Amino acid sequence: MSIDIETAARVAKLARIRVEEDELPALAQEFNNILGFIEQLQEVDVEGVEPMTSVTPMRLKRREDGVTEGGMAKTVLSNAPDAREGFFAVPKVVE
């Protein structure tokens, strides 16, 4: 796949990036370089390779997934501009 100048201009417009006319060839080339790198990555055989979390071998810290009350309702509600009966109070938006 090759990106031409018109496609690069369209991508820049969709991304809301202002690119000057004289910079479009360089942008198109950059897109082509990125696509070439992706094609190289697709050629790599990753069958049987486990996903990595880091370049150094390590295990993720895990905790038990348990439901709690949080125990911080008063602290959280202290930041609210208006709180009533233990809940955030918001203006009515439906008439």
UniProtKB/TrEMBL annotation:
Q: Which UniProt keywords apply?
A: ATP-binding, Ligase, Nucleotide-binding, Protein biosynthesis, Transferase
Entry keyword annotation includes Cell division: no
Q: Enzyme group, top EC level?
A: ligase
Q: Which InterPro entries does the record associate with it?
A: Asp/Glu-ADT_sf_sub_c (IPR036113), GatC (IPR003837)
User: According to the UniProt entry, what is the EC number of this protein?
Assistant: 6.3.5.-
Query: What reaction does this catalyse?
Result: L-glutamyl-tRNA(Gln) + L-glutamine + ATP + H2O = L-glutaminyl-tRNA(Gln) + L-glutamate + ADP + phosphate + H(+); L-aspartyl-tRNA(Asn) + L-glutamine + ATP + H2O = L-asparaginyl-tRNA(Asn) + L-glutamate + ADP + phosphate + 2 H(+)
Q: In the record, what terms sit under GO molecular function?
A: asparaginyl-tRNA synthase (glutamine-hydrolyzing) activity; ATP binding; glutaminyl-tRNA synthase (glutamine-hydrolyzing) activity; transferase activity
Query: Pfam families in the record, alphabetically?
Result: GatC (PF02686)
Gene Ontology BP term (one): translation
Q: Which NCBIfam families match?
A: gatC
Similarity annotation:
Belongs to the GatC family.
HAMAP family, alphabetized: GatC
Q: Describe the protein's quaternary organization and the partners it interacts with.
A: Heterotrimer of A, B and C subunits.
**PANTHER family attached to this UniProt entry:** GLUTAMYL-TRNA(GLN) AMIDOTRANSFERASE SUBUNIT C, MITOCHONDRIAL
Q: What does this protein do?
A: Allows the formation of correctly charged Asn-tRNA(Asn) or Gln-tRNA(Gln) through the transamidation of misacylated Asp-tRNA(Asn) or Glu-tRNA(Gln) in organisms which lack either or both of asparaginyl-tRNA or glutaminyl-tRNA synthetases. The reaction takes place in the presence of glutamine and ATP through an activated phospho-Asp-tRNA(Asn) or phospho-Glu-tRNA(Gln).
Q: What is this protein called?
A: Aspartyl/glutamyl-tRNA(Asn/Gln) amidotransferase subunit C
Query: The organism's lineage?
Result: Bacteria, Pseudomonadati, Pseudomonadota, Alphaproteobacteria, Rhodobacterales
